[in-house]
Design brief:
alpha+beta, Rossmann fold, Dna Ligase, domain 1, D-amino Acid Aminotransferase, Chain A, domain 1, 6-stranded antiparallel beta sheet, 13 helices, disordered N terminus, binds adenosine monophosphate, binds glycine
Length: 434
């Protein structure tokens, strides 16, 4: 097919992914006058209403290439980390027929910042970026690992080196439990390939927040901060989830604190990409912890957060496609980021049982009666005109407010109107900020 879109200076855009993050990307991109046709692969019931969903998996690079060529796509925006760690950007660059297409997301070597905890720790140390002290171990050095644990104070932080679907970090209070866990990860391959190496870290005590940075590889722009709520239970108890809610901005991130983040963490990170030849056009998600008055890095992710995107992008006033284009062209320095002064919050509705076993295929009702909030669909699909649950995290209800308390209240009021069998959500998002 001819690539007619360029004639009008607009673009055909493909978003990869199917969560609330990708619905938010689609919502923001669909508002842009620079977007001609918008595709999402595989997408969900939310993206189906504003874009064309294509039933292709995010790691099926050959099928993605075919789609890109058939539909004359000019830009691919990668949502999740998996295809980045698997080298989707490199796949495009190495193919003559698609190398000219913009891919938003770092190349494979740079995606190792999320793909390998050890790689990330070495990067942080090399560039003197504040982070927890650590050592890493393999099956061969497990005895040294036990000895290292003995030198540390509880709690003990053990991290599988590779991607482990968000489950690879284990924090234990008891030394013997920590040793047993180390053995289970290294010797018994608890997380398979992902735990052939294990990073043991100093425990950092503080409150967490996330910082999101856009980069074209040289220039950077900082997006609003956000705080997410990872635990399933109220009062931050129970199992870890992908995220149960988020708030932006983070009330305790004062200008002085944000300045420390920029000077001590963001600048050396972006400069580090250059120094280490890590080609990076994309989003940098820096997981931070505030220890005393100082920020330290917990982790890098090479993508936006979910559900943080559902509160960060709604506060961005700019045309998102203009920003993405500047990222791909290396002209991010020409963009002035404009942020809505209002707070944004989101509450995640999940299937009962999540993050353990849960049922799917439940009809979600009441969406049309939502007022003054934005329902970002996540694990939900359209079937015969009905919105049905298809995952653990089902829908994120985002609201604006002059304060985050006001925004949260609006989200909870709208959630009252929504229903699906065994719907669950945290009723205390923001509880720790008062
Ligand atoms: P990660 O997958 O690296 O983000 O780790 C998951 C969670 O474990 C983080 O969000 C923190 O809550 C916690 N965590 C990770 N590393 C540390 C650390 N060094 N000290 C305290 N908590 C940590
Ligand atoms: N909400 C945390 C993440 O996206 O990893």
């Amino acid at each position: 097919m001819k690539r007619e879109s360029n004639k009008y200076n607009t673009m055909n855009i493909l978003i990869l992914g199917s969560g609330g993050r990708e619905h938010t990307f689609a919502w923001k991109i669909a508002k842009s006058t620079k977007c001609n046709q918008l595709f999402v692969a595989p997408g969900n019931s939310g993206t189906a209403q504003i874009a064309t969903n294509v039933n292709i998996g995010v790691n099926d690079f050959d099928a993605i290439k075919e789609l890109v060529l058939n539909e004359g796509i000019d830009m691919v925006v990668v949502g999740p980390e998996d295809p980045l760690v698997n080298g989707i950007h490199d796949y495009f660059l190495n193919d003559e027929t698609i190398k000219h297409i913009s891919v938003i997301g770092p190349q494979k070597v740079a995606a190792e910042l999320e793909g390998s905890k050890e790689f990330a720790k070495e990067f942080l140390y090399r560039h003197n970026i504040p982070t927890a002290a650590y050592e890493s171990f393999t099956k061969e050095t497990v005895e040294k690992g036990y000895a290292f644990l003995e030198t540390l104070k509880a709690p003990y932080v053990l991290k599988a080196d590779g991607l482990a679907a968000g489950k690879g970090v284990v924090i234990l209070n008891d030394l013997e439990d920590a040793k047993a866990e180390l053995k289970s990860m290294l010797v018994d391959a608890k997380f398979g390939e992902a735990s052939t190496k294990v990073v043991i870290e100093e425990f950092l005590d503080g409150i967490e927040l996330s910082c999101f940075v856009l980069t074209d590889g040289t220039n950077y722009k900082i997006l609003p901060t956000a705080k997410d709520y990872k635990r399933i239970g109220e009062g931050d108890t129970g199992l870890n989830t992908g995220g149960m809610g988020a708030i932006s901005p983070v009330p305790f991130a004062t200008d002085e604190f944000l300045n420390k983040i920029e000077e001590r963490i963001v600048k050396p990170t972006i400069n580090g990409f250059k120094k280490d030849n890590l080609p990076y056009v994309g989003f940098v998600f820096i997981g931070l912890i505030k220890v005393g008055d100082d920020p330290k890095v917990i982790e890098y992710n090479v993508r936006m957060g979910d559900p943080e995107t559902e509160v960060v992008l709604p506060r961005l006033k700019n045309d998102f496609v203009e920003i993405l284009e500047a990222m791909s062209k290396g002209s991010l320095d020409k963009i002035d980021i404009e942020i809505d002064e209002r707070a944004a919050t989101t509450i995640m509705l999940v299937s009962g049982g999540y993050p353990e076993a849960y049922e799917k295929g439940k009809e979600i009702t009441g969406i049309e009666s939502i007022q003054d909030s934005i329902p970002f669909h996540a694990g939900a699909l359209l079937k015969d005109g009905k919105v049905m649950t298809s995952g653990g995290r089902v829908m994120a209800i985002t609201s604006y407010g002059n304060t985050y308390q006001e925004a949260i209240k609006k989200s909870y009021q709208n959630i009252e109107k929504l229903h699906f069998d065994k719907m669950n959500y945290r009723k205390d998002i923001g509880f720790d900020l008062n």
